[in-house]
Design brief:
The complex is a heterodimer of chains A (about 550) and B (about 120).
Chain A lengths: L1 H4 L10 H34 L3 H8 L9 E2 L5 E13 L7 H11 L5 H8 L6 E7 L1 H8 L6 E10 L7 H4 L1 E2 L5 E3 H5 L6 E2 L4 H18 L3 E8 L5 E7 L18 H4 L9 H10 L15 E3 L2 E3 L11 H6 L3 H11 L1 H10 L24 H8 L8 H12 L3 E3 L12 E3 L3 H17 L13 E11 L2 E15 L6 E8 L17 H15 L25
Parallel strand pairs in A: 1-7
Antiparallel strand pairs in A: 1-2, 2-3, 2-4, 5-6, 8-9, 8-16, 10-11, 12-13, 14-15, 15-16
Helix pairs in contact in A: 4-5, 9-18, 11-13, 11-17, 13-15
Chain B lengths: L1 H68 L2 H12 L12 H4 L18
Classes of the chains: A alpha+beta (about 550), B mainly alpha (about 120).
Chain lengths: ~550, ~120
C-alpha cells in the first residue's frame, strides 16, 4: 500500500533525468498536437464562416437593364431592352467546317456563306457569327446539334412601333450607347414618359406621308404642340427610318427636319408682326394701310403676290398676305422692338426642348431697315419649324410663351408673357379670318375653329432666290375661342400637281394637309366639336381673299 | 491530502480541456453545418434570381409584343383590311350640346286591356 501510494519514491535518482526528458518530449508532442488541432479548427472555422469569392461574383451577376423603357404620355411602350442571343463559334471544336456551314445556313440564310466558312475555319479561339437572335432563332440553331456553336446573352434595344416617332425616340449602337433622340439625350436609368401621344403621332405621320406623296416634296415636317404646357404631342419628319435597323437607314432619313432644318418660313411670320404692331401700339386694327402703293426700301422693291388696288385694314393685310402691309407695320414698330419681340419668342436661340437635335437660327449679322422689313414677312432669318411653332404658340396661349419640351409634364416650366392677352386674342381672330375668308380656307374643319396662316417662301439658290424651289408652311391653332393645340406643317419643295392649277403654294398643300391632320387628331385629343354658329369670325363680311399667300 | 488534491485538480483540468475540445469541435461542426445550409440557400436564391431574370426577360418580350400588336399603324391596317374601318370623319361627330336638339322618341301608347296593377 505504501509502495503504491508513493511511486515517486521508487524512482531512482539516476533515472530522474531520463524520466524528465521523457515528460518534456510528451509535453512537446502534446503541444504540437494541440497546435495542429488548433490550426485545423481555425481552418474549419474559416471555411464555415467565410464566403468564397466565386459565389459572391455569381450572385452579383443578376442582369440589370442598362437602359430603361421609354413610353409615350399614356404609357405605350416606345423603346425597351430585350435579351437576345449572340451566336458564337469555337473553331477548334468544329469537326467539319462544310457540314457546320451548310447546317447553319439552312436556318440562318442571311449569313454570308464565304465569310461563315472563313470564320469557322479561323485560328481564333472564339468568333462571333451573328447578333440579336430571338429565342426561336436560337432554338433553331441549337437543334442543329452542331458542336462548336455557342450562345451568349446580350441586351438589345427594341422599338415595337418601327418608324413611328423614330426621330424623337432615336436609336443606340450595339453596345446600347445612345446615338440620337431620347436615347442620346435622356438619362434612362429609370423609365421615362415622353410628351408625345402615339395615336396623334400616327395620325400626323400618316397624313404627312399622304401629303409628301401627293405633292412630290423632298421632305415634310409636322409638329403638334400643347400651347398650355409646351408639350410636344407629336413631331414627325419624312422621310423617316426604322430605329430597329438604324444602321441601314440613309443619312437623310435619319435627319430630324422638324428640329434641325432651318428655313426662311415666309408669311407665317406675319401674325407675329401684327402682334408686334399691336403690342407697341404703333398700328390699330381699324387703320387702313396703303398697300396699293409701291413700296421700296434700300432700293429693294417690296412686292405683294396678290396686289390690291385699295388700302387694306390689318385683318385683310393678313388674309391677303400683304408683304407691304406687314413691312409698314414693322418699320413703325422699329427694329429694336422687333428684335426684342422675336428674342422674347425664343427665335434668336436654339430651342432647348430636351433633345440634342435642335438647330440654331440663322440671323443677319447687321439688322438694317431692310432686315426689319423682310423679317416682317418671314424672310431674312431662318429658324427651325420647332422654334417657330413654339413662338407662335404664344399667340394661342393668350400671349404667354412656354418653352417646349419632349418630356411629359403637367404644367409649364419656363413661361414668360410676351404680349397682352388682348393682343393675342385679336391676332387669333384675324388668323381665324384667314381660314374662313383668306388663304387658309382649305384648312378649315367644321366645328373645330381652325385659326391659321399660310407661308410660301422661295428657297435660296445660287445668286439669289430660286423661284422654282419653294418652302411652304401652315401654322395653325385650334379650337378658336379656347386654343389648346398648335400645328405646323412645312413642305420642302412641293410640286404643282393635278388639282392645284399649277400652284405649289402653301394654300394648296400645307393648308389642306393641316386640315386633314386636325380632322383626325382633334377628336383624339378630346376637343369637343362646336356648333357651326359658334365658330365666329370678327370680319365675316369681308370679301374673299385671293387663293394663296 | 496534497496528493489527493493534485489528482483531483489534474482530473478536473483534463475534464475541462476535454469539454472545451468537445465544445470547440461541436461549434465548428455546427458552424460548418450552418454554413452549408447557408450556401445551399444562397444557391437556391441564385437559382431563383436566374429564374426571375428569365421570367422578367420573357415579360419584357411579351410587353414588346403587346406594343407591336397594338401599334397604331398595325391596327389601322388590319382594321381597314378586315373590317373596312377608317379614321373618324369629323362630319360624323356630334357635339354634346347638339344632342339636346335631337327630338326625343315618342312614348309608345299603352295597349288597351293591360295594366300594371
Amino acid at each position: 500500500m505504501s509502495n503504491f501510494s508513493t511511486p515517486r519514491l521508487q524512482v531512482a535518482n539516476d533515472e530522474y533525468d531520463a524520466v524528465r526528458e521523457g515528460r518534456t518530449r510528451i509535453r512537446i508532442g502534446a503541444f504540437m498536437f494541440l497546435g495542429a488541432l488548433g490550426v485545423a479548427v481555425l481552418r474549419l472555422t474559416d471555411i464555415a464562416l467565410t464566403t468564397p469569392n466565386a459565389s459572391a461574383s455569381a450572385t452579383d451577376a443578376t442582369p440589370i437593364p442598362a437602359r430603361a423603357d421609354i413610353t409615350d404620355r399614356h404609357g405605350e411602350l416606345l423603346a425597351t431592352t430585350l435579351t437576345t442571343h449572340s451566336l458564337y463559334a469555337e473553331p477548334a471544336r468544329i469537326w467539319d467546317v462544310e457540314e457546320t456551314a451548310a447546317a447553319l445556313l439552312s436556318v440562318r440564310p442571311d449569313l454570308d456563306p464565304a465569310k461563315l466558312r472563313r470564320d469557322l475555319a479561323s485560328e481564333r479561339y472564339e468568333i462571333r457569327l451573328e447578333r440579336g437572335l430571338t429565342p426561336s432563332e436560337r432554338q433553331a440553331v441549337f437543334e442543329l446539334g452542331q458542336p462548336g456553336l455557342t450562345f451568349r446573352e446580350e441586351p438589345r434595344r427594341a422599338y415595337p412601333n418601327g418608324p413611328l416617332a423614330a426621330h424623337i425616340i432615336g436609336y443606340t449602337d450595339v453596345d446600347l450607347n445612345g446615338l440620337a433622340g431620347a436615347e442620346r439625350a435622356l438619362d434612362l436609368s429609370t423609365p421615362t414618359a415622353l410628351s408625345i401621344d402615339l395615336r396623334v403621332q400616327h395620325a400626323l405621320t400618316e397624313e404627312l406621308a399622304n401629303g409628301l406623296a401627293r405633292f412630290e416634296a423632298d421632305t415634310i415636317a409636322g409638329i403638334v404642340l400643347d400651347v398650355k404646357t409646351g408639350e410636344i404631342i407629336a413631331m414627325a419628319s419624312l422621310p423617316d427610318f426604322d430605329p430597329n435597323h438604324a444602321g441601314a437607314a440613309s443619312t437623310q432619313s435619319k435627319y430630324n427636319t422638324a428640329a434641325m432644318s432651318t428655313y426662311e418660313l415666309g408669311s407665317v411670320f406675319k401674325p407675329l408682326t401684327l402682334a408686334l404692331a399691336l403690342e407697341t401700339q404703333t398700328s390699330t386694327t381699324t387703320e387702313m394701310f396703303p398697300v396699293q402703293k409701291g413700296f421700296t426700301i434700300q432700293r429693294k422693291r417690296i412686292k405683294d403676290d396678290h396686289p390690291s388696288r385699295v388700302p387694306m385694314n390689318m385683318a385683310d393685310v393678313l388674309a391677303e398676305s400683304s408683304n407691304r402691309g406687314t413691312a409698314l407695320m414693322a418699320l413703325r414698330a422699329g427694329d429694336d422692338a422687333q428684335q426684342s419681340f422675336l428674342a422674347d419668342l425664343g427665335l434668336f436661340d436654339r430651342v432647348a426642348y430636351g433633345l440634342k437635335e435642335s438647330a440654331r437660327p440663322q440671323l443677319q449679322t447687321e439688322w438694317q431697315d431692310i432686315t426689319t422689313v423682310t423679317v416682317s414677312y418671314g424672310h431674312g432669318m431662318s429658324v427651325s419649324p420647332l422654334a417657330f411653332i413654339a413662338a407662335s404658340a404664344a399667340l394661342f396661349n393668350d400671349g404667354t410663351y412656354v418653352a417646349p419640351t419632349i418630356l411629359k409634364r403637367d404644367k409649364p416650366e419656363v413661361t414668360r408673357r410676351v404680349m397682352s392677352r388682348r393682343t393675342a386674342e385679336t391676332v387669333q381672330g384675324m388668323m381665324r379670318y384667314v381660314v374662313t375668308d383668306g388663304t387658309g380656307r382649305k384648312s378649315d374643319v367644321e366645328g373645330y375653329g381652325v385659326m391659321g396662316k399660310t407661308g410660301t417662301a422661295d428657297k435660296p439658290g445660287v445668286g439669289g432666290y430660286d423661284g422654282r424651289s419653294l418652302v411652304t408652311s401652315f401654322i395653325s391653332g385650334f379650337p378658336y375661342g379656347d386654343p389648346q393645340y398648335a400645328l405646323l406643317v412645312t413642305y420642302d419643295e412641293p410640286k404643282p400637281v393635278e388639282g392645284t392649277h399649277g400652284y405649289a403654294t402653301a394654300g394648296w398643300n400645307a393648308a389642306p394637309t393641316s386640315g386633314a391632320i386636325i380632322a383626325r387628331i382633334a377628336p383624339l385629343l378630346g376637343i369637343e366639336k362646336r356648333p357651326v354658329e359658334q365658330t365666329m369670325s370678327p370680319w365675316p363680311n369681308n370679301k374673299n381673299a385671293a387663293d394663296d399667300s | 491530502m496534497s496528493v489527493a488534491y493534485n489528482d483531483s485538480l489534474r482530473a478536473s483540468r483534463r475534464l475541462t480541456g476535454f469539454l472545451l475540445f468537445v465544445i470547440g469541435v461541436g461549434l465548428t461542426i455546427g458552424l460548418f453545418y450552418v454554413k452549408t445550409r447557408a450556401r445551399t440557400a444562397t444557391n437556391d436564391v441564385r437559382t431563383l434570381e436566374r429564374q426571375i431574370a428569365t421570367e422578367q426577360s420573357a415579360i419584357d418580350v411579351l410587353h414588346a409584343e403587346i406594343a407591336f400588336l397594338g401599334s397604331p399603324a398595325r391596327l389601322a391596317a388590319i382594321g381597314e383590311a378586315r373590317l373596312g374601318l377608317a379614321p373618324t370623319d369629323p362630319a360624323n361627330l356630334v357635339s354634346a350640346s347638339a344632342i339636346l336638339d335631337i327630338p326625343l322618341r315618342q312614348q309608345p301608347a299603352p295597349v288597351e286591356g293591360t295594366t300594371d296593377e
